[in-house]
Each structure stands twice: as C-alpha cells, then as structure tokens.
Amino acid sequence: MKILVWNEFAHEKTDERVRAIYPDGIHATIAAFLREEGHEVLTATLDDEGCGLSEALLDTVDVLIWWGHIRHGDVPDAVAELVQKKVLEGMGFIALHSAHHSKPFKRLMGTSCNLSWREDGDYELVWTANPSHPIAAGIDRYFKLAHEEVYGEPFDIPEADETVFLSSYEGGEVFRAGCCFYRGCGRIFYFQPGHETYPTYLQPEVQRVIKNAVLWAKPTYRAPLACPHVKKISP
Amino acid sequence: MKILVWNEFAHEKTDERVRAIYPDGIHATIAAFLREEGHEVLTATLDDEGCGLSEALLDTVDVLIWWGHIRHGDVPDAVAELVQKKVLEGMGFIALHSAHHSKPFKRLMGTSCNLSWREDGDYELVWTANPSHPIAAGIDRYFKLAHEEVYGEPFDIPEADETVFLSSYEGGEVFRAGCCFYRGCGRIFYFQPGHETYPTYLQPEVQRVIKNAVLWAKPTYRAPLACPHVKKISP
Amino acid sequence: MKILVWNEFAHEKTDERVRAIYPDGIHATIAAFLREEGHEVLTATLDDEGCGLSEALLDTVDVLIWWGHIRHGDVPDAVAELVQKKVLEGMGFIALHSAHHSKPFKRLMGTSCNLSWREDGDYELVWTANPSHPIAAGIDRYFKLAHEEVYGEPFDIPEADETVFLSSYEGGEVFRAGCCFYRGCGRIFYFQPGHETYPTYLQPEVQRVIKNAVLWAKPTYRAPLACPHVKKISP
Amino acid sequence: MKILVWNEFAHEKTDERVRAIYPDGIHATIAAFLREEGHEVLTATLDDEGCGLSEALLDTVDVLIWWGHIRHGDVPDAVAELVQKKVLEGMGFIALHSAHHSKPFKRLMGTSCNLSWREDGDYELVWTANPSHPIAAGIDRYFKLAHEEVYGEPFDIPEADETVFLSSYEGGEVFRAGCCFYRGCGRIFYFQPGHETYPTYLQPEVQRVIKNAVLWAKPTYRAPLACPHVKKISP
Prior knowledge:
The structure is a homotetramer. In chain A, 24% of the residues lie in helices and 26% in strands. By secondary structure, chain A is of the alpha/beta class.
C-alpha cells in the first residue's frame, strides 16, 4: 500500500515550539509511524515543485493525507482540482485538523467547512461514537489529548456518511471530530486532532486512528471520470 | 394542529422530588406550554384504558410526544405496533429523554437504542450543530441545563438523517442529543434532555425546542400502509 | 416569495426547434407558471451583465432556479462561487436537467456529477419514490414524458439526503431523477427532466414538481458564512 | 468465513415449477456457489427445530442470508428478535427478494418495507448505480434477468446508506434493487432478484453480487448489546 503524506510545512520552519515537536515536519512524523505498518510512504510539501503532486504520482498513490493551515491560499487551484479529481477516481483522502479549510477538502465537501475555534490549551476528549467502525478499531470508549485547539460546532459539512468520533473540550464545546464521506469512487476521512503546537501526532491513539483510516480509505475501485454518450440497448 | 402528549406517569406518583417539579405529571407541563402556541393538546398515560391510545384517536393526531422510563415493559406490544404504524402513515413522533428505550422508538429505529448513562447531577451543555434547522430556530450557540442525567456515546441508532444538537456534560461525555429521522411518511425527532428529577421541561430553551419540533414533525402527507398488487402499465 | 430563474439562454437563440417551444426562452416559461402561484419571479441570463447575478440581488432571492447546457464554461468562476456562497447562506437552489454539469451545482456537490446519456427521443417515466415528500405533492405513482433525453446511472453525486423521484426510459435505463441535498443553510433540489428540444416545461406534472420544489427550498434561516474565533465559556 | 443460508423452503415442496429449478431448495443452490469461494456454508430452514437458528450457532456465523415469502408469519417473533440482536451485535445479514417482508428485515428497518409488485414475466435490468462499491465488483453497467417478479417504488425503507443497484422492468417500473444499511455493529444488504419460479440464482451476475455481498457484510467488530451505567471520569 502506497501512502503520500502532504504537509504545507510552514509552522515548523518559523515557530520554535513547533520545530521542537516536529523537527523534520509533521509529515515526517506521520510518515514514520505509517512506515511501521509496512506501508510505502512518501511525503510532499507546499514548496516542492508543483506542491510535490502530479497526476502521474497520484495515480500510484492509494491514500493521500493532507495537513495545512496558514498557507492554504498558496495551494494552486489546479493542484486542488487534481486532488479532487483523483479522490473522485478512487484515491483515499484523509484531511487532518486545520485541513478542514484546505482547498481539496472544501472542494470535495462543497460547503464552507467553517467552524468555531479558540486556542486556550484545553484538553480534548475524543469519544468513540461508532465502536464498530474499522477506523475505531483498538480505540477505547474515549481517549484524552492533554492540550488541543478547540474546534466547535456548528461545523459546516454535509451530513457525514459515518460519524466515528465526537469530541468534547475542557471548555465544554463539542465537535464531530471523526467523519467519513463517500464521494465518487473515493473515501474521505476528516479527523480533528493535530494542532501544530501540541505533540498530538506523537500520541499512540492518534497514530492508531490514522493507521486505521489509511486501511479504510484504501481504494477498492479506481476509474477515470467519464460522462459517456451511450448507445441505446436492446433488452 | 392537534398534539398528543403521552407519559407513563409513574415517577410523579411515587417520587416526591418528581411530584414537586411536575405535580400533574410531565405530560401536563409539556401540554401547557404547547397550548400557549395555540395548539389543541391532549394527554394520555399508561394507566389509561388501552394506554389512552386508539387507532381512531391517532388518526386525528398530528404529532405524538412520548415520555417513558421505568414502565416501558408495561406498554403492550400491540400499542407499540400501532404507534409505529401511525408514524409510518404520517403522524409525527417526538421521543423525549428515556423514551430512547421506549417500544415505539426502538421499533422505528430497528436498533437497540442503547447508550452509556450515569446520574451524578452534572450540568449539560446543548450545542446547536445545525443552526439552519427549523428545530433550532431561536436557539443560541448553546444553552445550559444546570443538572441532567448524563447520556453518552455510543448511542446505538441508525445514522441520523439530520443532526440538530450535540451535548456535552460536566464529566466530559458527548451525545447526539437532537436527531431527526424520516421513516415512511412520518417524521421522528429524538431529544435527550428531560430526566424526571430535574426541572428540565420548565426551561425556556427546552420548551422552544419542543415547540419547534412539533411544527417540524407536522404531517405533510398521510397514507395507509399498502403493498399493492399493481397492473402492468402500457407506456 | 421571490424567485429568480436563471437560464444560459443559448439554444433558444440558435435552434429553431427550441425557439418554437420556448419563444421567449426556457426561463420565461418557467417564470410564467411560477407567477401563477403568486410568487414574485425575476429572470436572468448568461449574457446579462454579470450574468444578471449580484450579491445584492441574491440576498433578496429566496430560491434560484438554474438551467444551463452548452455554455456552462462561460459562467465566470466568481459567479459560480457567489451562487455557492449564497446557497450555503440559505438561498434555495434548484438545478434543472443539464444543470447537473453547471458550475454552481458541481461546486455544491463536490463530485463530477457525471452520468451516462443519449438522445434518441425515448419516453421517460418519472416514478415517485417518496410520495410523502412535499416535492411529490399532487404527483401520482408515475407520470410520462413523451420524449426526453436519457440520463442514466451511474450518476456521480453524493448519496442524496432524500430521493424523491426515480426515472426509467424507453431503452430501460434508470436514473435518480429527483434528489434533495442539504448544504449549509441551503436546500438543493436536482430534477432531471427538461431537454431543450422537448416541451417538458409545458407539462403540468413537471410544473407541479417545480412549484412544489420552490416551496420546499424556501429558506427557513439565512446567515452569513463565518468561522468565528470564540471565547472560552464558563459553564 | 462462515455463512448460514436460511430458507423457508416452502415453494420447493409444493410447486413443481420451483422444484424443477431448485430441486434441493433455493438454500442449497446459494450454498453451493458460495462454497465455490471456499467459504464454510451451512443451511437452515423454517421446519428445522427452532428454525435451525440458535444464539450459539449465530455467534459463530459471519453472515446470514435470508430467503422467505409465503411463510414469514410462521417465523416465531423470538427467532426474528434473535436475528435482529445478532445483526446489531455484528453479524452480517443479506435479505433476498421477498425477504423484504421477512420479520428480521422489517425489525431492522423499522419501516413497513412495503412496495408495489406484479408478476407478468417481465425482464428486469439491474443497473449499477455505484460501480465503486465492493458489492458491484465485476458487475458491468447493467445485467439482464430474462424474467423476474416486478417490484416497484415506492419502497418503504429508510433512506439507504449506500445505493448500489437500481432496476427497471419491461413494464417500466423502477426499484432500488440493491441497498446497504449500517445498523449497530452489523451490515445489511437487500437485493431484489430471486423470485422462486425463475432460475435467478443460477445466473452468474446474481451469484457474483451475492458473493461480493458476503465479503462486504463480514463483521469487522462484534460486541454484545449493552447499555452501561458508567462512572464519572476525571479528565
């Protein structure tokens, strides 16, 4: 299985707190724990040529993981359109944390993906709403993140096809933290945890969820988009 | 518009704390604030003959509201089946709090409707997940209940057609507190607040949600169940 | 209630067959039967300045109806983005026939909206899958269109929130011909009939469906898109 | 993987036409082609003791396939309740053809599962609405059944979680012929073809769909139903 971890890779270069947690970038940390599963894992970042994403490359990728935040606007529309197309053709897509506002995720949802947010160092409790879902495999009734950015409802997404996790925060907010969507031939998972200033991706439960999500999002079918002019059949 | 408020009417007869809050029963309190809206509101209870529910009566009812808890088992299967049938034929149905385990609601969901629960006097925060939904009209970003029974995920229901409210509790649990379902010709709304030992139904926001839900659940179409043997058409 | 009927208004200017059916344009025909319902109905076309669509205008429109086909590409992205934004803010949107490939509809769905198609003059049978849905009010078990363009599955849309109509054609194809979607604060209805070379919009059942859809899509709530930085509450 | 094929086994005993097609019963034919896949396949029928279904047995079964028609009423409620419970606990369930009215399927749906029907020897065209779905693997754009009983909309089911197949018939009717539902920990697939007087289950495409469905419905998680009284956590 071939996974591509994409990261805008901005905060790690400018914020000492972030670099201390993710010295080689969030993408490197995520790639490392996915490689432990025996997957082939590539990484790409915003400053790579063409954002490190080409149609030829994505045609070989099973699942694309996306992390972005302050540089969403620097992702060319053509790149966002390419990612959307490849997901609709079957490539799995996992949008992490602030990727709720990434161009590819917003294009796939068709909504603003807006939410309420604040950053006060609250703890987060991630609750399993659907323990039978493959993405929740090995996850207990809940797990705790000592500090996370708060994302609160309303979250402007289409009604999820499957709601896997719901989170609450120290301040009482709630959020649909783990949501599955089926679009075209592709499977999409959004997962809320992952603010850059906290060691979220070092936490075993978070790694487990992402490891599960990659398996869930693996394509069962890939096909080019087509709107065929068909012939009348003679039943 | 004609509304029927059904209550098992058990706790109010045996528990002084409950009687102090709902001297005439939870049904009487709910009926009273719905009458303020100009609706015709009837009430029925478990100990009425035939549970106070007949097909002739329900055929005239737009929306049935259900509250039950310790006496679910005393509701005859035939009565539960009748309610299910009338909902599928178009009657609106609102299941309150512990009615998640009522026979009619379980029959309509097809699932166990199990959840996690505890009773420690936590406060509850009810968050609006879908502010554009008619049931959320006039409800702010969230409202607080000083004390409520805690209902926690996982909540074994079919994925809701519309998720209107999500709750969190003092202890950190989360719950899909306001969920809409479309079944047959009927509309169903489940709403979590309403433990008998707290004055939940006296709170304006809770009354507003129920007033909104009744309007949302009003039938747009009613039809008897049928599985017709049809004739071949000649297009 | 204020309705805006938008039409690319291209075929009517170049194709005698189309002009014979819709001498003043498809938009004029649709506007006329909606005015019979007492609605205020405006029209706009692609060649109007700014496509006849401004944010100030759309803020006053309850429901926007869209018909386009060969000139989808001439609709500026900024106009498509504006329509998407206004729908997410609450404006109703009805996409007719070949508008399945219009920029606003595709943006709202997030999918390719591709389908299979052919044009052989087949009859179409539109079947009511959900007779209790307000959009099916007054529509019988099925109705027939003497001639329509064939649209066939697979139709690359997100799973519909509500499936109201399913169609079959003389050649045996099937299609989800009437689908409802909830996005942001807005309601979206797609309806398949309406190929320009046939008098589809003159047919009473088609007019009834569109009249019903306009009432269904009327906003219950409008709010500007926002992603607020919130303050920690003190429950 | 362990599969149990259940059949009321009535028509085959009384109708020469049916016995000619399924000399050992529909269950035997289905079991035979599933064994070709290397699965362990058991069968049970209505006249077996306890309908051939016990909790101990079902706890070892991955997927239960159900065929019934004229003897639905002879299935004890306790057996239907057991099947429902085991599905909610994770066992896969595939309801074939007239099993739309079987007690277990109706209990799981919560609706009447009524539909329109006629039997005139029409051909049926089964169209793939979702080619990316695992259950559609290896199935072309459509396949034809020379003769089938006609099932027509409206089909009174909850909106499907995934619509895989849509059928049309010689007479023009349409039907949601292949629908997936997620309930509790279980996966449910309904598939329309399979009238007893036609050799439907001998047709390769039908066998392929059922073979695919069994793999799709295989449990990923099994857990006993529970409604736990939990302790307050100390986050």
